[in-house]
Amino acid sequence: MPCLASSSSVKKISALLVNLCRLVLALTLILSGFVKAIDPLGTQYKIQDYLSALSMPGLLPDWMTLTMSIVLSALEFSLGIFLLFAIHRRLVSRLTLVLMAIMTVISLWLWLADPISDCGCFGDAVHLTNGQTLLKNLVLLAAALVVSRYALKMVRFISKTNQGIVINYTVVFIVATSVYCLYDLPLFDFRPYHVGADIRKGMEIPYSAEQPQFETTFIMEKDGVRKEFSLADYPDSTWTFIDSKTITVSEGYQPPIHDFALERIDTGDDITDEVLADTNYTFLLVAPLLEYASDSNFGNIDQIYEYSQDHGYGFYGLTSSDENGIAHWRDLTGAEYPFCQCDATTLKTIIRSNPGLLLLKNGQVVRKWSHNFLPRAEELTAPLDQLSIGHLPEENPMSKIAKILLYFAIPLSILTIADRLWAWTRWLQRRKNRRGRKTTKTTETTEASETTETI
Question: Distances in Å between the alpha carbon of 8 and those of 4, 154, 214?
């Protein structure tokens, strides 16, 4: 008896461990996949960073890296949901193990070589160092090993009959989310230029912040021999100075916004402070590369520029393209607004659209629009302070989360509850039938016994 009790306890503990590992893996993959899915362009940029780190920039065309971005986010999110519901337990657990093994190898390379400072595991929502990423993936790899080894101990939340519904609904939902965010803008903006952000505050460095540390090495020569010296052991005047080099020992504090600078191409003036300090409204048309910018809505852009001129608002185009690219854009669209030069990475960070439109007031981001959803002429019928688009949107992150729950989590929850009730009803029916058969058998046995006694 003690051995049986001990064996039962071990089984319960192992089942608890498997389902705990399954829950950790599922929630991590769901979060990782979702934050990638709502920012497909950001994930594409990260894939391109990896290719550049491997000395293969431009190896794959943009459409292919974008497709990889959508597929990767859909794969992670779907595997997380399937683990959570224990769908196709053996297959899903093995696919998860393969995925985590690949991710762990990549994170080990990042930790050893340090080609990229942030792996992009959670998009812009959570930033991890390469060491933290490796530790996270090792823990998840161990969890994936446990789940894969004891896959059948995962408790099902949905019956086999309805698994296909969950699979199809999950894949359609996450792919549709990526496509929508690609056409418009990410549902959630975790970057420092989000709506409501004060760009000037994002550029501030606290007084008590850690300062960057540098180390300078001097190359000196004496009697045909060259040696390197630091400031601490700088040699006497008998040595001849040849060269010096300075390296960064410690990066120190870096503000969230550290590379926002606007230089007018026609005058060469830096107008960053002027734009950020303007208490009136300013439109910024952001196009990282005009050569690849969509010109499908240039008519709306020109109308917004004319509207800004009529009401005394600033309007600037921001791009990293050269004068030839700007001239081509002007010829194509008839643009008359001035352009400013800005870093391409900064522009891609500001807005996930090429082109995209920002509305600033006193350095604060009031609105952001994709080129597919620009304000139309019928909306611009009065000064901006009298229009809803001239003020911060009323929709907050909680309302967006509520919509996601409404469109995805609640339907799946209702399906799960209905499925469990149906399974419970079937179990009760089977139990009732077993009892009925047992009662019938007992009655028949009793009647046979009575007949025998009578004989």
Answer: 6, 17, 62
* Strand 281-287 to 314-319 pairing: parallel
For residues 223 and 176, is the Cβ–Cβ distance under 8 A? no
**Structure tokens given for 47:** 């894939």
Across the 455 residues of the chain, what is the mean pLDDT of every consecutive 10-residue run? 61 88 95 94 91 84 93 96 94 96 93 85 86 93 94 89 90 94 92 93 82 74 84 80 71 81 88 92 94 89 94 94 91 91 91 94 95 91 92 82 82 84 74 67 53 45
Q: If 0-12 CB within 10 Å is exposed, 13-18 middle and 19+ buried, where does residue 355 land?
A: buried
Could you write out the DSSP letters of every residue in 150-219? TGGGSPPSS-GGGHHHHHHHHHHHHHHHHHHHHHS--SS--STT-TT-BHHHHT---TTSPPPEEEEEEE
Tokens 């929709």: give the residue.
Answer: 395
Closest CA to 413 of 421, 172, 128, 12: 421
Q: What's the rounded Cα separation, in Å, for the pair 50 and 45?
A: 9
Give the tokens for residue 283: 């439109």
Cα end-to-end distance, the chain, whole Å: 46
Distance, CA of 83 to CA of 254 (rounded, Å): 39
- How far CA 278 is from CA of 156, 255, 275, 347, 380, in Å, comes to 59, 22, 5, 20, 21
Give CA angle at 201 (193, 207), nearest 5°. Answer: 140
The b-or-e profile of 425-445 (16+ CB within 10 A means b, else e) is: eeeeeeeeeeeeeeeeeeeee
- Of 273, 255, 253, 254, the closest CA to residue 263 belongs to 273
Label residue 33 exposed, middle or buried (CB < 10 Å: 0-12, 13-18, 19+): buried
Are residues 311 and 280 in contact, defined by beta-carbon separation less than 8 angstroms? no
- Angle at alpha carbon of residue 237, lines to 235 and 239, rounded to 5°: 65
| Pairing, β 314-319 against β 339-341 | parallel
Hey, what's the torsion of the CAs at 117, 180, 291, 296, to 10 degrees?
-160
Q: How far apart are the C-alpha atoms of 344 and 319, rounded to whole Å?
A: 7
- How many other CB atoms are found less than 10 A from the CB of residue 70? 21
Residues 297 and 333: their CA atoms lie apart, in Å, by 9
Residue 67 CA to residue 113 CA, distance in Å, equals 27
Asked if 153 contacts 396 with a C-beta cutoff of 8 angstroms, the reply is no
